[in-house]
Predict the structure.
Amino acid sequence: MRINSLKAVFLYIIFLVSQVLSQTPSGSSPSTTGNIAVSYGSTQVTPGIMLPRSVTSAVPTFSFTPSSPNQTYTLLLVDLSINAATLNTSTFNPTYQLPLAAGIAPNRTTRLHYWQAGLQFSSNGTLINTTEPVAFYQGPAPPAGDVAHTYVFYLFGQEAGFTAPAADSPFNVANVNRGMNRMSFNVQDFARETGVGPLAAANYILVQNTTGSQTGTASGSASATGSAMAPKGAAFLGEAGRTCLGGVGGLFMAVGAGVALLIT
């Protein structure tokens, strides 16, 4: 009994440590413990930080220490909080936009905001980039009255000889820059189809449009037709929750709970 209790405590501690170290929202996929430093001017991004829309209007700067010299990377910025009920899915391409990609919470889907390929970093972490973005940066713009949206920066290793997919792919350069094609962007499918390497690092921000009152759904007049219900995503902890539950205090709580279990 005591051995089983001890195992349970250790597993719980490992879970808490993973939440502390994770650079992506809890429960989201893909995930990583690697961090890419992101700065909007003088504002440095820590995972889950809430930022005003005005701060995030321009492309941020990035810094990352590569695992090996001359490694090339692909960077994405994806909104995980698009309200599926506001989307007119009759305009979507059923081949790759339906069913909707799972967002961060039930009935939420995704939107691509930025895709930059061909990134390299010097040994001291300085960004070296000489290529045009595949999908140009569009700053966070959650609708008025909606909850805070979660925007995740994903840094993937990029294999040698990488090129953007063919024209019939949803991840073709023309497709991701056409109309509503940035909606329902599936990061896992992107990784599989484009053949990028493993997720090397990440970071994420929260942005809310405070011009309206906070509600559980986004405001908007667009009707939802077709398969507008996104798959259920996991709930997650923001920066405050991560600090409270996933910090050192949380680890001590876990250890204390384990000791209590073993004593009893």
